[in-house]
Design goal:
Elements: H1 8-16, H2 21-33, H3 37-50, H4 55-70, H5 74-87, H6 92-104, H7 108-121, H8 126-138, H9 142-155, H10 160-172, H11 176-191
C-alpha cells in the first residue's frame, strides 16, 4: 500500500532499478506537485548524482531550484538555475525561474534580460510575455508592458491574469475605461467553468 510519502508509481520503478535517474526525478516531481518539497529535494539530488548531464539533470535542477526558492534558499536556487542553463542554454524555463528571483530582488535589468531571452526562445508562451510585461511595468515602461500583456492575451485569450495586469497598466496611464473593461473580462473568465 502506498503512502503520501512514497507515490506508488515511482516506488516500484525505483525498487526495480535503483540506479534510474529518471525514476528519482519523476518521483521528486510527484512529491513537489503535492507540496512535499522536503521529500522532493533528495530525489532530485539523487537523480543529479546518477545523471549529472542531459535532460533529466536539467529538469531535476530546475525543480530542485524551485524547491530551494520555496525554502528561501535563494543562492542554492540560483545555482541550480545557472547550472541548468549551462547544461541546456536553450532552457527558457530556467531563464523564467531565474528572472523571477531577479524580479523579487528588484534586479529588474537582469530579470528583463532573462525574460527577453526566454521570449526569443519561446515566443508563443503567454506566461513569459505576461511576466516580462510585469517587469516593464515595474520599470515604468507602460507602453512596452501593455504590448506584452496584449500579446499574452492574443496567445491565451482566456488568461484572466493578463487582463488584470493590463488593467493595472491602463489605470496607471489614466485609461480608466480600458482598465474597467479588462477587469470585467477577468471576472467573467474567472467565473467561467474550466474545460
Amino acid at each position: 500500500m502506498s503512502t503520501a510519502r512514497e507515490p506508488i508509481c515511482r516506488k516500484g520503478k525505483i525498487r526495480l532499478n535503483p540506479k534510474d535517474p529518471e525514476a528519482y526525478a519523476q518521483r521528486g516531481y510527484a512529491f513537489a506537485t503535492v507540496g512535499l518539497l522536503k521529500q522532493a529535494v533528495p530525489d532530485f539530488t539523487e537523480a543529479l548524482r546518477l545523471s549529472p548531464e542531459g535532460p533529466t539533470a536539467v529538469h531535476a535542477l530546475i525543480n530542485r531550484g524551485f524547491a530551494y526558492e520555496k525554502f528561501g534558499q535563494i543562492d542554492k536556487a540560483l545555482a541550480d538555475y545557472n547550472e541548468a542553463r549551462r547544461l541546456d542554454p536553450k532552457s527558457a524555463l530556467a531563464l523564467e525561474h531565474r528572472a523571477g528571483i531577479f524580479a523579487q530582488q528588484d534586479k529588474l535589468t537582469e530579470a528583463l534580460a532573462d525574460f527577453n531571452e526566454a521570449v526569443a526562445l519561446q515566443p508563443g508562451v503567454a506566461e513569459i510575455r505576461l511576466n516580462r510585461g510585469i517587469i516593464y511595468e515595474k520599470m515604468s515602461r507602460l507602453d512596452k508592458a501593455i504590448e506584452d500583456f496584449n500579446e499574452a492575451i492574443r496567445l491565451s485569450p482566456n488568461y484572466p491574469e493578463a487582463y488584470v495586469d493590463r488593467a493595472r497598466a491602463y489605470k496607471t496611464k489614466g485609461l480608466v475605461a480600458e482598465a474597467e473593461a479588462d477587469l470585467a473580462k477577468a471576472r467573467e473568465l474567472r467565473k467561467a467553468p474550466r474545460p
